[in-house]
Write a structure and sequence with these properties.
The protein is of the alpha+beta class. The chain has 2 helices and 3 strands. It folds into 2 domains: about 1-40, no CATH class; about 45-95. The relative contact order is 0.07.
Length: about 100
């Protein structure tokens, strides 16, 4: 498994402010994800595959939720932020 680290980036990666950016695939990996993958890479292959399947299943599930509820989720998020702001400003009573 090809692995990059903060002290020795692989051929396509570079490091900046705690984020690993790979120019060949145009994606950014956070430090937390990099740490998780690093820990998983130390496990036996069978366990690595279990985590990979779990990650892919989670990604697929997220895609379905976003496809089904995407606009609604955004609207609910905006309403939540508006209500939270009003609450902190004392403009609404949760009781």
């Amino acid at each position: 498994m090809k692995q990059a680290s903060a002290t020795q980036p692989d051929y396509c990666g570079y490091f900046c402010d705690g984020i690993v950016a790979y120019t060949d695939n145009s994606y950014i990996m956070t430090n937390l994800l990099e740490k998780a993958i690093s820990e998983i890479s130390k496990l036996p292959e069978e366990d690595q595959d279990k985590y990979a399947r779990l990650l892919f299943a989670t990604l697929e599930s997220d895609k379905k939720v976003r496809a089904t509820f995407g606009p609604t989720i955004d609207k609910l998020g905006a309403l939540f932020e508006k209500a939270k702001k009003a609450y902190h400003e004392g403009k609404n009573d949760p009781a």
